[in-house]
């Protein structure tokens, strides 16, 4: 047994190898349905029998728990899984994933937040499934929800946003026709037609702020020509922004896209020639056609559909 601040928990060596794969997923992604876990961990099986058995073992050990979610007109029950404080500490001891202070509670798991959380997970799962089809790389731990990025000095106590928090940061390695590989990083925003388009445009402007934000220490070195934007300490290139619409009819989502393009066009922070490459698609198009089909409408410049790369890239 491993002693944690919550009491004794099973040692990692007493958990099956499958369980050791499963726990980091629940730790990182917070709340996942049985279907999501099945698609990621046991896609070769028709029914998630073994998966459910392993989840039962982990639940009996106090490492995971679940809530039920009613879906559809018939009120079908869907099981949603999350990791307990014991499970969190066990994962953190393994150092397999980046430690996060957030802990999901049973109340949060059953709250309205679950819809948005599950939409983010669904997007990541779709990317991993398309990566498997295309011979690319994007695994179950290759997207992280809600990573904070500072965009100004100071704190956030007065309500003035000091941080940009994407819904997820997703990393994807693309195999090109020439046999080369490109590492792609995406900022992902999920919009279920519940947010005013003007608020989404404000966050778009915040992404542009982050693209040019230089910490105070960097500005003090500006006279010596050593200016360095904050994002360069985290990413090899500034990530592209992909906004995914869902939750409304196609015509309504098309109107939201046009409105968002119009707001982006008059934002002085945004320019087609600037560092931010941003586009909009729908969850349905992403699922059916994949990220490298022409399903993305750029938010800046001409509206001709492209793919998640948004602009052609050169391989190296």
Descriptive overview:
This protein has helices at 17-29, 34-41, 49-60, 85-94, 106-109, 113-134, 197-212, 216-220, 250-265, 283-289, and strands at residues 2-4, 7-9, 32-33, 64-71, 76-83, 143-145, 149-150, 163-164, 168-175, 181-191, 240-245, 278-282, 297-298. The strands form four sheets. It has a six-stranded mixed β-sheet, sandwiched between helices. The protein has ten helices and 13 strands. The model has no long low-confidence stretch (mean pLDDT 88). By secondary structure, it is of the alpha+beta class. A hairpin with a 4-residue loop joins β4 (64-71) and β5 (76-83).
**Gyration radius from CA atoms, angstroms:** 21 Å
- Average per-residue pLDDT, rounded, comes to 88
Helix content: 25-40%
SS elements, strand count: 13
Main sheet characteristics: 6 strands, mixed
Roughly what fraction of the amino acids lie in strands? 15-25%
The rough form would be described as: globular
Overall structural class, as computed from helix and strand content, comes to alpha+beta
Element-by-element helix/strand order: EEHEHHEEHHHEEEEEHHEHEHE
Count of runs of 4 or more consecutive helical residues: 10
**For the terminal residues, how far apart are their CA atoms?**
49 Å
* Low-confidence runs: none
């Amino acid at each position: 047994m491993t002693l944690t601040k919550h009491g004794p928990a099973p040692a990692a060596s007493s958990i099956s190898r499958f369980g050791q794969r499963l726990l980091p997923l629940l730790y990182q992604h917070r709340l996942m349905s049985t279907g999501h876990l099945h698609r990621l961990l046991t896609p070769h099986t028709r029914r998630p029998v073994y998966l459910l058995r392993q989840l039962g073992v982990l639940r009996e050990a106090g490492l995971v728990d679940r809530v039920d979610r009613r879906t559809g007109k018939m009120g079908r029950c869907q099981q949603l899984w999350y990791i307990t404080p014991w499970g969190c500490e066990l994962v953190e001891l393994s150092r397999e994933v980046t430690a996060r202070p957030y802990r999901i509670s049973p109340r949060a798991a059953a709250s309205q937040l679950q819809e948005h959380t599950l939409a983010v997970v669904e997007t990541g799962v779709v990317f991993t499934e398309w990566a498997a089809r295309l011979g690319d790389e994007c695994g179950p731990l290759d997207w992280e929800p809600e990573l904070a990025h500072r965009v100004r000095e100071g704190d956030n106590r007065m309500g003035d946003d000091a941080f940009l928090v994407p819904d997820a940061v997703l990393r994807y390695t693309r195999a090109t026709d020439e046999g080369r590989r490109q590492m792609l990083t995406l900022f992902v925003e999920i919009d279920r037609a519940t947010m005013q388009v003007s608020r989404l445009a404000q966050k778009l402007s915040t992404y542009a702020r982050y693209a040019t934000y230089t910490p105070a220490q960097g500005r003090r070195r500006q006279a010596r020509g050593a200016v360095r934007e904050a994002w360069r300490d985290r990413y090899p290139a500034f990530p592209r922004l992909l906004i995914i619409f869902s939750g409304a009819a196609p015509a309504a989502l098309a109107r939201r896209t046009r409105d968002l393009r119009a707001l982006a066009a008059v934002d002085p922070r945004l320019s087609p020639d600037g560092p931010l490459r941003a586009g909009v698609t729908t969850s349905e198009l992403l699922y059916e056609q994949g990220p490298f089909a022409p399903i993305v409408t750029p938010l800046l410049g001409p509206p001709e559909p492209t793919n998640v790369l948004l602009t052609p890239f050169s391989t190296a």
